[in-house]
Specification:
Layout: H1 23-42, H2 50-75, H3 83-101, H4 103-127, H5 132-155, E1 174-175, H6 180-190, H7 195-206, E2 209-210, H8 211-228, H9 231-241, H10 243-248, H11 253-280, H12 291-301, H13 306-324, H14 328-333, H15 335-352, H16 360-377, H17 384-402
Antiparallel strand pairs: 1-2
Helix pairs in contact: 2-7, 2-8, 2-11, 2-12, 2-13, 3-4, 3-5, 3-11, 3-12, 4-5, 4-11, 6-7, 8-9, 12-13, 12-17, 13-17, 15-16
Length: 422
């Protein structure tokens, strides 16, 4: 049977309605205007300082890499909730190879260990037809146990190491644009509306940026190009939409699924390596902290696309950075735009009431907006307990509000057997 020949410019069958080209630029510019205005009105200068944004980028990258791994797998039709386990073995691989052979070898070690976890998941789901969820849970349990066992066997007795942590590791290099950091810092400290915010954003992405952050961004952009702009990507995505139809056109569905899940594991392993080589410069037992699951949530929020995935990872990373910095005033400052958004939402619903819509939804949103405004007016900070909950609350709210527009690949999670039609 002839090999399927498809143009890389064929419209994406997984997205019935494309967003206009200005959508994401408008979101970015609009968010910058809102944040800048809130900063000036409330005096919460750390809301978008270069330090906060740099911390957010560092915390977002592991989530983005894990979510990108999930995207590769699920676009081929294989659900991968084993990202957490693949991240765990990736942390050990990064620490072991990084300690003995240097940080660059640590990156390869994390990728190789994650790919091994992906290969096990692919063998179970693609070859033997095991339920994807069952296999993913098993991978998480296996990864946690294997990481703990390997750490005890390899790090015990080393200088600075032990059964639950590795010795300190060498750092990866950081990149900066010479002479730009001080200029941008001066503009940031001026506090000028919008100018200071642009300066802090530019400083965060041009000063002391770890090389692994650059690699992660390249992987995000490269995955988008490969999966949405090449015949290979179209074939792989067809495996997650209609594998039996793709089979009739000559696509080797099993091979592409297996490859995608292995790549998924490699990316998840690299996410674990990021935690070791960048975030802490050593391995600690349990340091993934459920980030594989949050990366999966970021992928779902992004509607199984790299751009939305990156936005979701940045959102979760930003909220995590704010709570780690203990800035209750920043969370408090966001109460104002939240209240205004609820009011605008209620007004929109009232306008739609002329088309027969219920007024109840508008009324409860106005009531909630009033409560948030009272909270904002009579307090200066939110309680520390609420600040610590912010990343998880943001995850739940984002998934709840984005649920209606989500559209997973049609054959995601289905057991595929060659030669069998549905």
């Amino acid at each position: 049977m002839s090999e399927m020949t498809l143009s890389p410019t064929v419209p994406d069958v997984t997205e019935a309605k494309r967003r206009p080209s200005w959508y994401w630029p408008a979101i970015i510019v609009g968010s910058l205007l809102v944040v800048s205005t809130v900063r000036v009105l409330t005096g919460a200068n750390d809301i978008d300082s270069s330090g906060a944004l740099a911390a957010a980028i560092g915390l977002a990258m592991p989530l983005a890499l894990a979510g990108l791994g999930g995207l590769w797998s699920e676009r081929s039709g294989v659900v991968n909730i084993g990202l957490e386990g693949m991240m765990i073995v990736g942390t050990w691989g990064a620490a072991f190879f990084g300690y003995y052979f240097g940080p660059w070898a640590g990156i390869l070690g994390a990728v190789l260990m994650g790919a091994l976890g992906g290969a096990i998941h692919a063998l179970a789901t693609v070859i033997f037809g095991v339920d994807h969820i069952v296999s993913g849970v098993a991978i998480n349990l296996l990864g946690a146990g294997a990481g703990s066992y390997l750490a005890v066997r390899t790090f015990t007795g080393l200088p600075g190491g032990g059964p639950t942590q590795s010795p300190p590791l060498q750092k990866l290099p950081e990149l900066s644009i010479p002479g730009l950091g001080d200029v941008l810092l001066g503009a940031e400290k001026s506090g000028t509306w919008l100018l200071a915010d642009l300066a802090s954003l530019l400083r965060a992405v041009t000063t002391n940026v770890n090389v692994l952050v650059v690699i992660a961004v390249i992987l995000l952009v490269g995955s988008w190009w490969l999966l949405w702009r090449t015949p290979f990507g179209l074939r792989l995505r067809s495996c997650g939409e209609a594998p039996h139809a793709a089979e009739t056109l000559g696509v080797n569905v099993l091979r592409l699924k297996f490859l995608a899940v292995v790549v998924s594991g490699a990316l998840a392993g690299l996410a674990g390596g990021f935690l070791v080589l960048v975030a802490s410069n050593l391995y600690r037992e349990g340091q993934t902290g459920g980030r594989g699951y949050i990366g999966l949530a970021a992928m779902i929020f992004g509607n199984w696309r790299p751009g939305g995935l990156a936005a979701g990872a940045m959102l979760f990373g930003y909220t995590d950075a704010i709570q780690l910095r203990g800035r209750g005033d920043v969370i408090h400052a966001y109460l104002l735009p939240i209240a205004l958004m609820l009011i605008a939402w209620a007004i929109w619903l009232l306008i739609r009431r002329a088309q027969g819509k219920s007024i109840v939804g508008a009324l409860w949103r106005l009531g909630l907006a009033a409560a948030v405004l009272v909270w904002f007016a009579f307090t200066k900070e939110v309680p520390p307990e609420f600040t610590n909950m912010t990343p998880y609350i943001a995850t739940l709210l984002v998934l709840a509000f984005s649920a209606q527009r989500l559209r997973m690949p049609a054959a995601d999670g289905q057991i595929y057997r060659k030669g069998e039609a549905n």
